[in-house]
Amino acid sequence: MTAEQSAMGGGRARLAELVAVRDVYDVLTRYCRALDRADLAMMESVYWPDGEDIHGIYVGRASEFVPFIIGEITKYFTMGTHCLLNVHIDVDGDFAASESTLYSACRVRNDMAQDMLGSDYFAQLAGKGLDADHEMFVMAGRYLDRFEKRGGEWRILRRMVVTDWNACHPSNQILDEGMHRTLRPIGEWGKCDPVYANSRFVEGATP
Asked: pTM of the predicted model, to two decimals?
């Protein structure tokens, strides 16, 4: 093999690795999107059904975790945002491992505040924000994931969620005063969120 052929082979291998990293990253962001939109079908596309999720509030098969987490997110919160910060992905053939730094902020439903945040917090701080009916739950942690590619498709085979820190405080959200009255549309659970109309535009439908 000539040096030129060797370089071409190395280039193809590197390109394949970059494509794999991109596809794995797409799965990671799709999880956050599915969670923040409470989209069950999208969440099902993230995990292999025989995979495993170790989430603290849930430990078990991914096929059962998917409906569980969508139910929990809408039960405890009125809205939430999950973001990925630093992401490190290692690819080895049809397998990959990643560490993704997570930052999330969620508004806790008033009737779920004590269950979610505990009685000590509720007694000390509840109702001291501008919005007395909601509390904020903010956390930072990491997703530790193992991926497998099957039939050309990457999905999560095993996920562990590591909590690094959290902060809880009364909500100061303003929606109907000052400039905030004009900041529309407002995100929401499900298919009524503007992102679905935006996606249909890409797919060739009428925007």
From this structure: 0.86
